[in-house]
Design goal:
By secondary structure, this protein is of the alpha/beta class. The protein is built from nine helices and seven strands. The chain has one domain: Vaccinia Virus protein VP39 (Rossmann fold, 3-Layer(aba) Sandwich). The protein has a seven-stranded mixed sheet, with helices on both faces. Helix 1 runs parallel beside helix 4 and helix 6 packs across helix 8. The longest helix has 24 residues. The chain starts with a helix and ends with a strand. The chain binds S-adenosylmethionine.
């Protein structure tokens, strides 16, 4: 699948999921911890309110949580339907919401943000180096990127391997499409960036972002933290 096709599949997947996303999060106990994890990452590096980009903000839960703590937030997403959900939730208009246009490059000036948070997004981007370089571009010198990505050390990711393997067998994708693994298969088709922690760190380094020490394995998602030189 080429870059344009992967982007379209990802957009379709999240446009379709958008209307149920807020309800899905309302029933997910892990969402509170996820919001706290990003707020804590920002608050431990910055004593005052800062400019934050939430790249791939989805329905806006993390952006709104950080804005509620006083930070100045921009939420950006590939899916216009997700941005629409976020706008509807943000009645007090605390966040600037931006849907991606035709251009893959971020529509923000160089050095616009002190921090970028990106929760469960980098796994989907087709040209990871291009995206990371662009995220580094919009960060101010000394700014931080915080990203959660699949932690391949976690048993949950081990279990996904068989499904990923099944997708490579001719005819199996069509079969899975009609099974209870339908959504999992669609997710795994677009979640293509799945690497060991050291490989993620190499990726960050070659795009101008200095990663902190190896992230601990605490669940299916690991938090990468990297600073722009
Ligand atoms: C699993 S959701 C996570 C949403 C949110 N970050 C959260 O943790 O609640 C992934 C989001 O990333 C967005 N996304 C995927 N690829 C993207 C890209 N290249 N640029 C911007 N957003 C992207 C999707 O549209 C979707 O809303």
């Amino acid at each position: 699948m080429d870059s344009a096709e992967q982007t379209e599949q990802t957009r379709r997947f999240f446009d379709t999921a958008a209307s149920g996303w807020t309800a899905r999060y309302a029933n997910d106990a892990a969402v509170g911890a996820r919001k706290a994890r990003f707020l804590d990452a920002v608050q431990t590096r910055f004593a005052k309110p800062v400019d934050v980009l939430d790249f791939g903000c989805g329905s806006g839960d993390i952006a709104l949580h950080l804005a509620g703590a006083g930070h100045r937030l921009t939420g950006y997403d590939l899916s216009a339907a997700m941005i629409e959900q976020a706008r509807r939730t943000d009645r007090a208009q605390q966040v600037r919401w931006v849907a991606r246009g035709a251009d893959a490059a971020l529509p923000f000036a160089d050095a616009s943000f002190d921090a970028v948070v990106t929760s469960s997004v980098l796994e989907y981007v087709p040209a990871l180096d291009v995206t990371l370089k662009d995220l580094a571009r919009v960060l101010r010198p000394g700014g931080w990127l915080f990203a959660t990505v699949p932690d391949m050390r976690d048993p949950h990711r081990h279990r996904e391997r068989w499904l990923r393997y099944a997708l490579t067998i001719p005819g199996m994708a069509a079969l899975l499409e009609r099974s209870r693994w339908r959504e999992g298969a669609a997710y795994l088709r677009i979640s293509t960036n799945r690497m060991a922690p050291a490989a993620w760190q190499d990726c960050l380094r070659r795009n101008g972002l200095g990663p902190e020490g190896l992230p601990e394995s605490t669940g299916p998602l690991m938090l990468l933290a990297a600073r722009k030189a």
